[in-house]
Amino acid sequence: METSSKITEINGVGQELKKLFGNIGINTIADLIENYPRRYEDYSNVQSISKIRPGMVTIRANIKQTKGRYARRGIHITEAVASDDSGSVKLVWFNQPYRSASIKRGVQYYISGDFELRRQRFCIQNPSIELVSNFPLSTARIVPVYRETKGLKSAQIGRVLKEILPLIRETKETLPEWILRGNNLLPKAAAIEMIHFPVSTTILAKAERRIGFEEIFELTLASLLNKYELAREMSIRVPFDEVAARTFVKNLPFKLTDSQRRAIWQIFLDMDKEQPMNRLLEGDVGSGKTVVATMAAMMVVRNSFQVALLAPTEILARQHAETVTDLLSPLGLSAGVRLLVGGLSGSKKQRIYDDIKTGRASFIIGTHALLQEKVNMQRLGLIIVDEQHRFGVDQRRALQKKAGHMPHVLNMTATPIPRSLALTLYGEMDISVMSSKPGGRLPVVTRIVSPNSRQQLYQDIDRELEAGRQMFVVTPLIDGSGDTDDKSVKDVYESLTKGVYRHRRVGLLHGKMKPKEKESVMNMFAIKKLDILVSTTVIEVGVNIPNATVMLIENADRFGLAQIHQLRGRVGRSNFQGYCYLMMSDSSTPSRRLRALEQMNDGFKLAELDLEIRGPGAIYGTLQHGELDLRIAKLSDTKLIAASRRSAQEFIDRGENLLEYKQLKERVQGIRAITNLN
Ligand code: ADP
Ligand code: MG
Predict the structure, then answer these.
(1) Are 345 and 288 in contact (CB under 8 A)?
(2) Which of the listed residues 5, 165, 174, 613 has the most CB atoms within 10 Å of its CB?
(3) Residues facing 123 on adjacent strands
(4) What pLDDT is attached to residue 608?
């Protein structure tokens, strides 16, 4: 038996169990071993019966007076009495009629369960019981809780794992000895054993630290290797031209913020090298990333190279094309701007393809349409990817292949990610963070609203509308569906147009509409032909409508913290006060997440809080690759991250050969297949 063997080789695992395990993605022994517990229940504290208090308890006792009976409505109840030297306690099981027959007299059991009040008497309800003489798995220890599936309980998974404990103990070491010693890490075999069979909370913490260290180490090593490989590629040098930069800045309708200045300077330095830039521009919504990207593009275009800007939606691509044209026309560079989106007619597209080929088009802005075969960009010097988390590496790679050389890449994101996390997730990129926002903006006032106050809120909002402002209403669903109470965009649209806002002009926008329809509604809203836009989250990214100052989010409790923060960025884009109302699904107490949104406006602080509340999944959810998921490491553990990053760097500096570490090599290759731009 080896870790690569099928689980049916394990004693007691037949076809039936094989199928159940298959349902949760476990086919081989390695899958089973890497199926780490979701959490633990601590039953390690075995107490005398006289000492137990309400809550989860474990005792060591004899069991007597077992009897089963059927109670009202056909519920089966088994009752028994457990006794030790200090006293007795009642045990109760529901619908487990086999219990009374299986309990032996005169032997000692470990009994773990919830000690609580039932019909005015304290008893232990639905306890797990195991013979003291056996190797206890569900009692008298820290009990791992695994993800379950119908017919396959956590305890059963634990029993199967116990069968392969000897194999677990033979697990080969995956990290170099000097890393283990230098970081005081448990050997791999011990760590895996303690993850599944922890003997104390202290050693469990050490085991988790070891596995977490390795996860971060692999990610970092992969990104460092990506980075070194990229640095060996040749790109096009874009010499920095001070006069051009000054002219661009002089023609802006505003003064650049310090953050914008710093970011653009870093980009200019990067592009003035023969190695390709691979930079992430990270800035909260409204921090002004577009102008930074345009300034970088200007420098490339002036040097007679092409720029491609990839945007996730057509609306956004259009808006970028307008902004860019405005910014470049004072410099006489706007004639080369082209918009390439799916909705164009065949002949228009053909003309753009030709312009791209001949070089008449120097700055091409578009959606996925840019990735098509026919787009031929030989002189591509810079790729800008807006909202980069919306695109996979494959798509970025496709664009880059068009050049035949490695162009500079500027990725932009409005997802504020704490620095430690950004370094781990996006280690192969250099990062520019824009922390300050253009001055003169009032922070969006955010308020949680209970459905009871809906009518009052509608009246307050109507005063804003009367004053000429506009409102977004955001809902979680497109169509109403039977199984949830969540508001659908169509229902809300109906009820507002027929009800409280029948005197206002209301538009409807959702993802299932044709691009042309979406475009026209968006446009109507932008030119103030609509007062209210009822929409799904398709308005999330980028759109800029400064006169819209009110946002009402229905079923706000259904949205993620980061998502709401992005959404409300839409109403904080002018000198008018912006308002964001978070309408609850019901009148229950708002969550900590929603309250944080009321109190904080800083995207980075909120991201940190989100990480703390929801764990790394919150941010990983925005990536499209489960392969990169961390299963044990907590991204809030900055010390652990720093230590494993240091080791990864040292691994390279020492000239360690990855070929000597078989498993590490495989893992790192797997990660690089996803993250490497080459
Ligand atoms: P985001 O970073 O969310 O993409 P945008 O680039 O769309 O933000 O910029 C948001 C708005 O702020 C735009 O209307 C833009 O013209 C404006 N803006 C950008 N930089 C500045 C600045 N330094 N001062 C004032 N307004 C600015
Ligand atoms: Mg933007």
Answers:
(1) no
(2) 174
(3) 90, 116
(4) 76
User: Which ligand has the shortest distance to the CA of 388?
Assistant: 2
Contacts with 562 (C-beta within 8 Å, 6 or more apart), sequence order: 415, 416, 603, 606, 607, 610, 618, 619, 622
Q: How far apart are CA 554 and CA 509, in angstroms?
A: 15
CA 414 to centroid of ligand 1, rounded, Å:
12
323 C-alpha vs ligand 2 centroid, how far in Å? 11
How many angstroms is it from 290 CA to the middle of ligand 2?
6
Residue 607 confidence (pLDDT): 77
Residue closest via CA to ligand 1's atom 12 equals 288
CA 413 to ligand 2 centroid distance, Å: 8
Q: How many angstroms is it from 439 CA to the middle of ligand 1?
A: 10
Q: What is the pLDDT, as a whole number, of residue 624? A: 43
**Which ligand 1 atom sits nearest the alpha carbon of residue 386?**
4
DSSP conformation letters of 349-378: HHHHHHHHHHTS--EEEESGGGGSTT---T
Three state DSSP letters for 461-487: HHHHHHCCCEEEEECCECCCCCCCCCC
Q: Which residues line ligand 1 (CB under 6 A)?
A: 254-257, 260, 283, 285-291, 414, 438, 544, 573
Q: Looking at ligand 1, which residue's alpha carbon is closest to its atom 18?
A: 288
Cα dihedral angle (585, 590, 595, 597), rounded to 10 degrees?
A: -20
Provide the pLDDT for residue 573: 74
User: pLDDT tens for residues 55-113?
Assistant: 989 999 999 989 999 988 889 999 999 999 999 999 999 998 888 888 988 899 999 99
Q: Which two tokens stand for residue 6?
A: 């099928």
Q: Are strands 76-84 and 470-474 parallel, antiparallel or unpaired?
A: unpaired
Alpha-carbon span 239 to 154, nearest angstrom: 62
Protein residue with least CA distance to atom 25, ligand 1:
438
Best residue among 285, 291, 322, 441 to mutate for probing ligand 1, ranked by most atoms within 8 Å of CB? 291
Count of alpha carbons within 13 angstroms of residue 469, beta-carbon side: 23
Q: What is the 3-state secondary structure of 529-577? A: CCCEEEECHHHCCCCCCCCEEEEEECCHHHCCHHHHHHHHHHHCCCCCC
With the most atoms of ligand 1 within 8 angstroms of its CB, the residue from 256, 260, 262, 290 to mutate is: 290
The pLDDT value given to residue 505: 96
Those residues with Cβ within 8 angstroms of residue 73's Cβ, 6 or more apart along the chain or in another chain: none
Ligand nearest to the CA of 573: 1
CA atoms of 497 and 500, how far apart (whole Å): 7
* 380-430 pLDDT, tens digit each: 999 999 977 666 667 767 777 777 788 999 999 887 777 667 777 778 889
Atom of ligand 1 lying closest to residue 546 CA: 14
The residue among 543, 555, 547, 524 whose CA lies nearest residue 464 is 547
Residues of the chain with pLDDT under 50: 617-625
Are the C-beta atoms of residues 38 and 145 closer than 8 Å to each other? yes
Tell me which ligand sits closest to the C-alpha of residue 574: 1
| The pLDDT value given to residue 616 | 53
